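Response to reviewer comment R2.3. The reviewers asked that we include at least one raw input/output pair. We reproduce the pair for RGS10 protein here without editing.
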Amino acid sequence: LRWSEASLPAVFPPVRLEINDSEGHPSSSHQTLKGTSKWATSLENLLEDPEGVKRFREFLKKEFSEENVLFWLACEEFKKTQGKKQMQEKAKEIYMTFLSSKASSQVNVEGQSRLNETILETPHPLMFQKLQDQIFNLMKYDSYSRFLKSDIFLNHKKSEEQEENSPEAQTAAKRASRIYNT
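Raw output as returned:
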């Protein structure tokens, strides 16, 4: 006779095991990564965190390539745009800001994949996808690895660690541990 969790009578609630380290804290494999730890796992995770984007922009500004992340963010926002008129306006704004030969913050994309202005008349949510992918890969394989070694990242990581190890944070963690491990 085999029992599945679903077939057990209600009097036998599911057993949840929690693995703790020597100090009674949940094992790190069960903790959710946050902040710099999460940023360091992938560029995608970094770009999902507003604070990560802020720090990455700060770094790229020093490298004179902030336009890359600004273009990527503009494309992400463009994909959410509703209505043809709004799409036309935003598409033109992206084109004039990042892609035109006269652009104020021109991104470095391959010449043959540049858009010409005629495509702006019939915009669609993924019209910049190929260019956005190029810029994403440029950031991922170039500036992202340098960012992880930068003072901006390392100092932020250090301040996070100091915050986590502060007496207030440890007291709150111990209080929570006593509450949930009884």
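The chain has eight helices and no strands. Confidence is low (pLDDT under 50) at residues 1-23, 25-31. Further pairs are available on request from the corresponding author.
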